[in-house]
Amino acid sequence: MNNVAAERGLWGHRPLIRNGRSFPSGHGLFTRGSWTVPGFGRLYEMNRLGPEDYQSNRHIRKLLTLARATKRDVFYDLGCGRGQLCVVAVTEFGVKKAVGIEMHAGRAAKAAAYVEKLDLSDRIEIRNEDFVDSDIRDATIAYCGHYEEEDDVAHFERELAPGSRFVTLFLPFVGVLPTAADYPFYLMEVPFKRTTDASLWTSKVLFRSATVAELYRELDTDREYRYDKRTFKQLMKKRLTDR
Predict the structure, then answer these.
(1) Residues of the chain with CATH 3.40.50.150
(2) Which of 57, 198, 207, 216 has the fewest other C-beta atoms within 10 Å?
(3) 5-60: per-residue pLDDT in tens?
(4) Calpha distance 74→176 (Å, rounded)
C-alpha cells in the first residue's frame, strides 16, 4: 500500500505542509503525523490512510498465500482502502471473516458499499477508525502496508494472540526476524522473534549477507522501497547492534 502514491492520488499536485515546511506532492519521506493540505483547511493523518492506488489481485494472492490463509482464519487489513484484500481473502481463500479498517471516511464508505454490492456484508466488516484504536484481538492474520512507528512491535504483540501472523510491505519490523517472505511481503508471527544482530536482520531483509551500509544504499536507490528514512534509522540505532 503505497502511501506516496496514495498521497499523490488524493491531493493531486498540491504541496503538503508540515511544521511550516512545504513539500511537493509525491515527496518520498512521509510518516504518520499531521500534514496540512492547502485548500482543504484541515489536518490529515497521512500514514493511517488506506491507498488510493491498490494492490493487484496477484499481489493480494501472494500476500495471503504467504500468510497461509485458510477457512479457519480471521483476516484484518489495517488501512484497507476500497477493501479488495478483504474481498479476495473471503472469496478466494475462504477465510471465515475479514475486517477492513480505514481512517478516511470517504474510502471506508466506498469500501462498505463495494462489499454490500458483492453481497459479502455477512463476512466482511468495514470500520471507519484508526487501526491503532481498533479492537483486533480476534485476528489470526493482519496485514499493514504502512511505515513502522516505534510502538508498533509492542502494540501488535500486545493486541494479537500468540500464533497470529502479521504481514508487512517492503520491510519487516526493525529487529524482528520474519519467518517467511515473498517480496515485497514479509511474514512475522506472534510472539515476534527479536534480534539485536544487525547483520542477521539485514540478511533477512535483502535475502543475502549484507552490511547495514549496503542495506541503506539499496533502500535509497531501489525505487520500489517506501520507508520513512528518519524513523527507520532511529529504530535501527535503538534496536540493533554492530551497525
Answers:
(1) 57-189
(2) 207
(3) 333 333 333 344 444 444 443 333 333 444 344 443 333 344 444 554 458 999 99
(4) 23
Q: How many CA within 13 A on the CB side of residue 97?
A: 9
Kindly tell me the sign of the dihedral angle through the C-alpha atoms of 230, 146, 179, 154: positive
CB atoms within 10 A of CB 173: 22
Q: How many CB atoms lie within 10 A of CB 44?
A: 19
Instruction: Give the strand pairing for 74-78 and 141-144.
Output: parallel
Return the amino acid letter for 115. V
Residues forming a β-bridge with 36: 17, 43
Q: What is the pLDDT of residues 230-239, one digit of tens each?
A: 999 999 999 9
Which of 109, 111, 74, 101 has the alpha carbon at shortest distance from 89?
A: 74
CB 106 within 8 A of CB 50: no
Query: How far apart are the C-alpha atoms of 50 and 25, rounded to whole Å?
Result: 17
Rounded distance, CA 79 to CA 94, Å?
A: 21
Residue 81 zone, left/alpha/beta (φ > 0; ψ -120 to 50; rest): left
240 and 175 Cβ atoms separated by less than 8 Å: yes
Task: Write out the three cell numbers for 243.
Answer: 551497525
Residue 1 near residue 56 (C-beta atoms within 8 A): no
What nine digits make up the cell of 109?
A: 464508505
Cell 472469496 belongs to: 91
As a whole number of angstroms, the distance between CA 125 and CA 11 comes to 27
CA 195, 215, 205, 209: dihedral to nearest 10 degrees? -80
**Looking at the domain 57-189, which fold is it?**
Rossmann fold (3.40.50)
